[in-house]
Amino acid sequence: MVSRYPEERGAPVTVVVTGLGAVSCFGGGTAALWDGLLRADRRPVPAPDACGLPTRPYLYAAPDPGPVHPHPDTAAPGGEPAGRTSALVATAVAEAVEDAGLTAEDLLDAGLTVGTSLGDIDLAETPEAFDRRLATHRVAAVVAGRFGIGGPCQTLSTACSAGAYAVGWGAELIATGQADVVVACGGDAFSRVAIGTLQRFGLVDPECCRPFDVDRAGMVTGEGAAAVVLESAASARRRGADALATLAGHGWSCDAHHPMAPEPSGEQLCRSAARALAGATEAPGAVVLHRAGVAGNDSVESAAVGRAVAAVGDGTAAEVAGYAPKAVMGHTAGAAGVFGCVIAALILRHGVVPPNAHVSTLDPECPLGVPLGEPAPLARPSVLVSGTGFGGNNAVLAWRAVG
Question: Is 290 noted as a catalytic residue in this protein?
Answer without folding.
Answer: yes
